[in-house]
Amino acid sequence: MLQIDSLCKRHGPRTVLSDVTFQARPGRVTGFLGPNGAGKSSTLRILLGLDRPSSGTALVGGRPYRSLREPSRTVGAMLDGSGAHRSRTAYGHLAWVARAGGIPRRRVGEVLAQVGLADAARTRVGRFSLGMGQRLGLAAALLGEPAALVLDEPVNGLDPEGIRWMRGLLRGHAEAGGTVLLSSHLMSEVAEIADDLVVIAGGRIVAAGPLDRVTSGYATLEDAFFALTGTGRTEHGR
Ligand SMILES: Nc1ncnc2c1ncn2[C@@H]1O[C@H](COP(=O)(O)OP(=O)(O)OP(=O)(O)O)[C@@H](O)[C@H]1O
To answer: Where is the ABC transporter domain (predicted)?
Structure first.
């Protein structure tokens, strides 16, 4: 369970998160949706202990990330793609992440196979496509076999086949009792993957609940997105 409660974040005079409260539950894929600059990454960074809130709490399995005893076995994260250095091979990168997290090296081969990168294990990350980078980022998140996954824009750069694959993997994780929280700025992508939706706009939660309930009453998913986030029609894409 991921629990965000009354989170506020200010940068100087600027308030980027106001009273953000929501949960991502085990057995469910939760989509965290909002236009660019809405506050998704800011929320996920606080949840993962990379930034501190001005007030409020963000808990992973009932604890703040920074007080987790075995963080990489509790929550797997992907922010900004794979985060791997260009000169490293996929295998080398994952072996390094595994060592840092006290995870047995045998997991490296397992996660490479799980994300479909077994044949690219010895390829340097600099030669990866955006989609391969996303798969590598997901592999790193899966290394510690965590119950919770937190993924920032995981389908960014994936082709339709890649999105379908990602959906299957995340669905399997949720069906095995895991918790999945993923952010996206595209309603159509998130609607393909999520059970529950949390919509953020201007640093505030504007809707939350099961996907069909949040989007009901709108002619199209796009209409729902624009109505909920109050954004103009130019907001489509990056
Ligand atoms: N260190 C900072 N100082 C000042 N403002 C910041 C800082 N970090 C983020 N912001 C602002 O906070 C707001 C929310 O940014 P955030 O990155 O969380 O949005 P997002 O929903 O993840 O969008 P994107 O998909 O574009 O990253 C933005 O307006 C951003 O400019």
So the answer is: 2-227
Q: Which domain holds residue 91?
A: 2-235
pLDDT in tens, 173-196: 999 999 999 999 988 889 989 999
CA 18 to ligand 1 centroid distance, Å: 13
Q: How many domains does the chain have?
A: 1
> Ligand 1: which residue has its CA nearest to atom 10?
16
Give me the interface pTM, i.e. the ipTM.
Answer: 0.91
What is the per-residue pLDDT across 123-132, written as a single tens digit (0 to 9) for each?
A: 999 999 988 9
Cβ partners under 8 Å of residue 60, min gap 6: 2, 47, 68, 74, 75, 148
8 Å CB contact between 17 and 53: yes
Return the sign of the alpha-carbon dihedral for residues 99, 103, 109, 113.
Answer: negative
* pTM, entire model: 0.93
Ligand 1: distance of its center to the CA of 185 in Å?
13
What CATH number corresponds to the domain at position 117?
3.40.50.300
